[in-house]
Each structure stands twice: as structure tokens, then as C-alpha cells.
Amino acid sequence: MMTTDTREGSGSSATVLVSIQWLRAIAALLVVVFHGLYYANTLTEQFGQSPLNTPGFAAWWFGFHIFFVVSGFIMIHTTRDFGAPDAPKRFLLRRVVRVVPLYWLLTIPLAIGALFAPQAFGIETNKYQYVLSSFFFIRVARAGDDLRPLLGQGWTLDYEMFFYVAFALALLLPRRWGVGALTVVFAGLVILGRAFSIGPDSPILFTFTDDMILEFLFGVYIGLAYETGWRIPGWAAAVAVLAGFVWVAPDPSGPTFLINGLPAALVVSGFVLGPRLNSSAGTRWLEHIGDASYSLYLTHTFILLPYRKLWAAAVGDHLPVALYLVSSVAIAILLALVVYRYVERPMTLFLRRRFTERTVTTRADVPAAAI
Questions:
Q1: How confident is the model at residue 7, as a pLDDT?
Q2: Is the pLDDT of residue 3 over 70?
Q3: How many Cβ atoms sit within 10 Å of the Cβ of residue 210?
Q4: How far, in Å, are 247, 268, 281 from residue 256 at the CA level?
Q5: Phi and psi angles of residue 8, each rounded to the nearest 5 degrees, phi first
Q6: What is the spatial distance between Cα 15 and Cα 219, in angstroms, rounded to a whole number?
Q7: Less Cβ crowding at N or C end of the chain, within 10 Å?
Q8: Rounded to the nearest 10 degrees, what angle do helices 345-355 and 87-116 cross at?
Q9: Which of 114-118, 236-240, 290-294, 357-361 has the lowest mean pLDDT?
Q10: pLDDT in tens, 236-246
Q11: How far apart are CA 30 and CA 338, in angstroms?
């Protein structure tokens, strides 16, 4: 979710960074499979079957962390106006135009449902406060330690918005000083969070001091390395990607920035700093999913849960539950491509022309969201 797409070169000859498109697609697909497995295993439990598992890789939540690192990379790579007086305003306006409309559009029907039937959403707090917080990216507990907004996967946008504000403030400084300030502040917040054992019972402070925010910094520094021309050979890039996926897989417990963030940084480094990836007919589908990654990320749960209920009623245990997983992921992708083509993209174009006074007409000018 950035100001412009990730491009190599400048001006009209700029081209989309294929590696970032692939990473967006991979991250989004990991998240969809993560949630798809959850619903698939509610079916296996209902039918008294053994749960589905994916031998060799179980950390499908890894997609969230790849998104965070990619976001930091794109942010530094596409921002050139550090130190300009109006840079923060321009940056935040572009972010709001890019991120908020589709999220709000999808949150509205959930908000209506929550106001009339809060128990259906498991809301145990003030429903009006909770709904408003969901719209404005303010973390508040739905119930107990559940800090998800109405659109559950939108929890990552709470972090994104925090990083956007922090990055916008950093734009007040020259680039070197701005990045340095971000590093010191984020590291300091994480240390404070650990020192005072800030937990989910203080949702906002917990978000601001969560060591997950360091993943954005990993992406920023990968972007700086990319800009200096630092590259790694193909074998090293392959090792980095493989090591990242192996590292994250065994155990989700421990400091997030170590068990998820650093592996995600390895994967992103392998894709971005390795040999340049080129678009081809065989990989074009992955780029299209990368374009629609924000739509896929936000809309896939609108398919998975209703489809799970339909499967239970119409199919039952007559077909392998694995087919539910495969078909639900495929349908979610198709829906996302439609939403991107007919809702997200035209809406973003219109709002950019209206509020940022910039005419955008090419694919490279309309970024697929980092999340």
C-alpha cells in the first residue's frame, strides 16, 4: 500500500518490480490458505475426521509477516521527498486514499450486523466504541484478548497505520536522519514494551510496543540496500528464501521479530536483492494475484466462511475436505480479481485524481497493496 508502485528506473520507462508482485501474491496466498485450513479443520472436526495438515510446512501465518517487510521496503523505495515541508501531508493523503476506501466498504455491512447482533460477532465490549474503532484503526478488545476489528484480518492495518504516521513524521527530516529516528524510536518502543510487560489488556500500547513493528524496519533497510546497488548471486538468493521458510516453520512461540520477522526479511531479501526476476507468460498469473493482493487479503473471508457452511450442508463428508480447501482458495482468488478490476482499481483511480491531483493511467501507477 504505497505512494506509487515499486518500479525500477524512473519516468515513463519505469517497470514494475516483478519480485515484489510475486511476494505480494505469495504472502496473500499464504494468508488465504491459513484461514482456509482453519475452516477446513472445523469441517473435519464436524465429520469426525483427522485434521488436514500440510507436511513440510505449517506456518501459513507467515504471509502476514512477509507483508510487513514488503511494506517497509516499498515505503522507503518509493519516497523521495524527505525533508520537504508538505511531504507528510502528501504521504498520508496518498495512504488514506489507497488503503481506507476498500476497507471501509467491506467493513460497513459487518458494522450493520454488529450493531444489530453483537453477540454474533462475539463482541463483549461497548458495540458502538468497537465499531468506530474498527473503522479508524484503533485497537480495542472485542472480547478478552481478541483485538481483531470487525474485518478480522484488518488487525494488520492497525500496525500499518501506526507505521504510516511514524513514517510521515520521519519525512520532516532529511532521509538519513529520518530513517535513524524511526530506528531509534521503534527499537525504544519495543524495549519499553518488554520492560513493562505491556500486553493485550492495553490494546493501543500493546500495538505500539509490539516487536512486530521491527519487521517494517527490516523492509526499510532492505530497500536501502537495494538502492545502493547491493545484490546477491542467485544461489545465495535461493538459500535466503529457503532458509526463511525453514526457519519460520517449526515453532510459533518466541519473540516475533526473531521467529517471523527475520525469516520474512530473508525471503524478501532473496527475492529483491537476488537476480532480477522477469515477467513471463508462465508467471503472469502470479503477477495478477499480486496486483489484486489487497482485494484478496480483505475479501477472502467473505468466501471461506459461507462456503464452509454451504459445503457442510450440501456436500458433507461425501467428498474429501481437502477439496473444500482447494476450491475455496480458488473461488477467493477469482472474487479478488473481480473486486480489484471493478471496484478497487477504479475507486483508487478516481480518488487519486480527486484528492491527490495526479492522473494515473497505467498499471505501474496503481499500486497493489503491500497488505
A1: 43
A2: no
A3: 19
A4: 12, 17, 37
A5: -100, 135
A6: 20
A7: N
A8: 130
A9: 357-361
A10: 999 999 999 99
A11: 20
Examine the pLDDT at 12 and tell me if it is beyond 50: no
Q: 3-state SS of the chain?
A: CCCCCCEECCHHHCEECHHHHHHHHHHHHHHHHHHHHHHHHHHHHHCCCCCCCCCCCCCCCHHHHHHHHHHHHHHHHCCCCCCCCCHHHHHHHHHHHHHHHHHHHHHHHHHHHHHHCHHHHCCCCCHHHHHHHHHCCCCCCCECCECCCCCHHHHHHHHHHHHHHHHHHHCCCCHHHHHHHHHHHHHHHHHHHHHCCCCCCCHHHHHHHCHHHHHHHHHHHHHHHHHCCCCCCHHHHHHHHHHHHHHHCCCCCCCHHHHHHHHHHHHHHHHHHCCCCCCCCCCHHHHHHHHCHHHHHHHHHHHHHHHHHHHHHHCCCCCCHHHHHHHHHHHHHHHHHHHHHHHHHHHHHHHHHHHCCCCCCCHHHCCCCCC
Number of residues that this document lists for the chain: 371
Whose cell is 500500500? That residue is: 1
Distance separating alpha carbons of residues 80 and 54, to the nearest angstrom = 43
User: What number is the average pLDDT over the span 23-31?
Assistant: 97
pLDDT in tens, 57-95: 889 999 999 999 999 999 999 998 999 999 999 999 999
